[in-house]
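Try this one yourself first.
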């Protein structure tokens, strides 16, 4: 099945738009095919501000308006305790809220951007989406990440080469309680590194501070600029280490 077939059968749906490569392309393609697909973004403490801005930009490019829902994710059952399957509880709460809002707006089908190259066998979050009957057109139509990036380039989408970005909660080790303060420290630190020109890195919390993981191609530069990096992060982390294995 191709996307045109999917949206011929399902011409009206809500879409969880993250501002990433996959959901941005899905929204663009659906609107280009004439489908009534309405994008929604759930703003929580787990998403940095730039993801919301990217989602707004994606919706505008597709010629539609983004609906933003504010959600207190740390109050959701099983989330702030941060168990190994935290993603299940997070996705279950977020997509339940999205489903309820979409139904209020008259949309009975909810879509997400999971693609055919995503490994869904060991992803607790996918179990939640299955339980809530969320559809994944890219996956159902066999579209993999490489093809989605190529099609995004052809469409002129700004997300075509955007690196994958996992939510801020993934920076906190499983079993460590997630707090708003820790999430804010991670976001500020990652923003500082973005401003220095680094990309596709992670600031991960450790018992004594933070560990920085850079792509191997940026690792030598990070080592050379280590004093500057520590200076930018010192207000949030007194102890900072660099992972010399790279990402």
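Now uncover the answer:
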């Amino acid at each position: 099945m191709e996307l045109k077939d999917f949206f011929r059968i399902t011409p009206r749906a809500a879409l969880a738009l993250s501002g990433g490569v996959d959901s941005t392309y899905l929204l663009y393609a659906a609107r280009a095919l004439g489908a009534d697909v309405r994008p929604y973004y759930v703003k929580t403490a787990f998403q940095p501000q730039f993801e919301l801005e990217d989602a707004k930009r994606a919706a505008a490019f597709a010629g539609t308006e983004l609906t933003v829902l504010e959600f207190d994710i740390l109050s959701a059952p099983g989330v702030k305790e941060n168990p190994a399957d935290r993603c299940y509880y997070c996705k279950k709460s977020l997509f339940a809220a999205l489903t309820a809002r979409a139904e209020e707006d008259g949309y009975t089908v909810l879509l997400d951007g999971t693609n055919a190259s995503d490994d869904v066998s060991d992803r607790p979050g996918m179990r939640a989406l299955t339980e809530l009957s969320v559809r994944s057109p890219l996956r159902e139509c066999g579209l993999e990440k490489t093809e989605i990036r190529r099609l995004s380039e052809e469409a002129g989408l700004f997300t075509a080469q955007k690196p994958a970005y996992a939510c801020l909660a993934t920076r906190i080790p499983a079993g460590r309680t997630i707090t708003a303060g820790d999430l804010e420290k991670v976001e500020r630190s990652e923003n500082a590194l973005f401003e220095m020109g680094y990309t596709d890195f992670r600031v991960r919390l450790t018992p004594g501070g933070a560990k920085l993981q850079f792509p191997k191609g940026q690792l030598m530069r990070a080592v050379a600029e280590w004093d500057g990096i520590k200076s930018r992060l010192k207000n949030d982390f007194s102890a900072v280490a660099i992972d010399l294995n790279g990402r």
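Discussion: The chain has a mean pLDDT of 94. The beta strands are 12-16, 36-43, 67-70, 110-111, 202-206, 209-213, 240-242.
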